[in-house]
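Predict the 3D structure for this chain.
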Amino acid sequence: MLINTLAASLLGLSLTVIPYQFPENRLYRPNVDTGFIKYETLSIHGTNTYALTFDDGPHKTNTPQILDILKEYNIKATFFIVTSRLNNSTFPIFKRILDEGHIAASHHHEHDNSNQQTETNYKTKLKKSILKLASYYKRAGYDYNKIYYRFPYAAYGENDNYHHMNTLKDVSNELFGDNCINFVFWDADSGDWIPTLTSRDVFNNIKSFQIGGEYTTYYISRASGHRRILKKKIINDRPTKGGVVLMHDIQKRTIGALELFADYASKNDISFTNIDVLDEFSFKNKKCNLIGDTK
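Done. Predicted structure below.
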């Protein structure tokens, strides 16, 4: 059982954070090696420090507004990009992400549920996503040597015929000659993807990971034969007081929620970092460059 950072500190214990960020050097087993609670970012639990991440963009109007807020509060973040959305019209947003010190990462080429993809389809689209990101980094004038990836829907490991972590290693070795694809889950789900939530709901959800209390999720009502998504209040009684936050820059409500949380953080001794400086996601001395890339 892993002890979180805060508890270890209170008990006077030393804590070794297991570097789960790269697939391990073993054969993963389908339907056995699953789940992502074990991949929590323990190094910043209990520290009042958060790493913001945004999925599914770039969005032509929402992402620039999110970048404006991050710039105002001097926050660096990671954008997990669905690379089929990268094109000439979104390239200026992509370049701005890098120009302003953020990280652009892969959220696959399309937002497919990985567990429903054949190994061939999954591998093909993963390679396509990584190579497209690399080309856009190069076009923007930056080196692509920190390769981060997030599974759509956090779905992995539940296909009977193969395990996605093994495929990550295979693709990485083909493209980089090393185990270089650094996968990222999260500690705090903002819930901004839930259709019925407001910006205030999303802000309160994030805040609940700092102070505990009410968290707004949803349930499906089929009363009178009509399907409706309704809000449901639960209690977050295990605030992490730090961690990686899941948000989505394709959601309009995320803009207001980010503004509220950034302002709240500035008044409550809460700080921000980015994933590349955290133990769990650090490349340390690992050199990752595309094979055959002479730049």
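Residues 115 and 149 are 16 Å apart (CA to CA).
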